[in-house]
């Protein structure tokens, strides 16, 4: 984690009094959130706590009823998802498109072309497409998929597909990555691999993730915000929030173990 020389925290993404009301129901209620540059920050909480709604507000898939969101000091509250992607906030597993019949290499190459604003032109001369290969291969290596570079994406095991999705996301050169339940539906051995991958790609990026798997959260997160009933219940390291009686009660009350 980095701090500015004057000792204040270097906040990349912040939300102030973020609120979302659905037809009279308040799903997110006055949430303040500060994500430090270079950190892995997790948003957790029992079912129905407002995590997904909060995530959708931060990625601009939903417009807040009130409150403000700032990224790198700039007010992004009124921006559209595509605009914040251009600013460097990329939501993984949503905007990344994996084409099952294409190879891993072709998928990453297309993501690179997309970033550069080139069209999805499969008829371009091979020479032009090959120009992307070096960078594509380095993204593929970054996510540990080098042995699978020429395999069809659709034939990859589930955890490797996730890794490919992350590679296509990294091709957009995000300064900040938002991961929506990256471990959802994953087998144990894949969880370990994707955890290690998230740690690796966090090296020079900021990550905010919503994740239900608390051992992954404990393992990866520098800081955790716990939501319950649409509000921030607690914030701190895993050691701190897991000992917080209100957090324990919120999970028990919601039927979690
Ligand atoms: N479009 C909507 N219209 C009405 N209510 C909604 C809508 N989206 C979410 N809600 C309600 O807002 C509350 C918070 O939902 P949200 O999905 O954000 O919680 P969550 O913490 O992500 O839960 P889970 O862990 O179960 O995914 C829930 O009570 C949900 O029913």
UniProtKB/TrEMBL annotation:
PROSITE patterns per record: ABC_TRANSPORTER_2 (PS50893)
Pfam family, one: ABC_tran
CDD domains per the UniProt record, alphabetical: ABC_Mj1267_LivG_branched
GO molecular-function terms, A-Z: ATP binding
InterPro entries in UniProt: AAA+_ATPase, ABC_AA/LPS_Transport, ABC_transporter-like_ATP-bd, BCA_ABC_TP_C, P-loop_NTPase
Domain ABC transporter: 13-254
Protein name (database record): ABC transporter ATP-binding protein
């Amino acid at each position: 984690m980095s701090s500015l020389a004057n000792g204040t925290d270097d906040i990349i993404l912040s939300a102030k009094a973020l609120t979302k009301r659905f037809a009279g129901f308040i799903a997110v209620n006055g949430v303040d959130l500060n994500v430090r540059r270079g950190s892995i920050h997790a948003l957790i909480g029992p079912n129905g706590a407002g995590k997904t709604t909060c995530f959708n507000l931060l990625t601009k898939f939903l417009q807040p009823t009130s409150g403000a969101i700032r990224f790198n000091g700039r007010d992004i509250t009124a921006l559209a998802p595509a605009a914040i992607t251009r600013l460097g906030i990329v939501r993984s597993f949503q905007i990344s498109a994996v084409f099952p019949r294409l190879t891993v290499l072709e998928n990453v190459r297309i993501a690179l072309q997309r970033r550069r604003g080139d069209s999805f032109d499969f008829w371009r001369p091979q020479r032009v497409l090959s120009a992307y290969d070096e960078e594509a291969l380095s993204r593929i290596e970054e996510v540990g998929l080098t042995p699978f570079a020429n395999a069809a994406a659709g034939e990859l095991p589930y955890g490797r597909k996730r890794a490919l999705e992350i590679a296509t996301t990294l091709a957009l050169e995000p300064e900040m990555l938002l991961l929506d339940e990256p471990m959802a539906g994953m087998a144990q051995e894949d969880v370990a691999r994707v955890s290690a991958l998230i740690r690796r790609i966090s090296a020079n990026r900021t990550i905010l993730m919503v994740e239900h798997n608390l051992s992954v959260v404990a393992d990866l997160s520098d800081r955790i915000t716990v939501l319950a009933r649409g509000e921030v219940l607690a914030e701190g390291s895993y050691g701190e929030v897991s000992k917080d009686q209100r957090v324990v009660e919120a999970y028990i009350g919601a039927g979690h173990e």
